Amino acid sequence: MPAPEPGQAWGILGGSFDPVHRGHVNLALEMLKARSLNGILLVPTFAHPHSKAISADFEDRVAILEKAIVDHKELWIEEIERELEGPSYTLDTVRALKKRYPNVEFYFIVGQDIINELDSWYATDELFEEVTFLVGLRPPAKIEGSLKKLPPDRIEVVQSKVVQVSSTEVRRLIADDNWLDLEKYLEPDVINFIREKGLYR
Question: How many structural domains comprise the chain?
Answer without folding.
Answer: 1
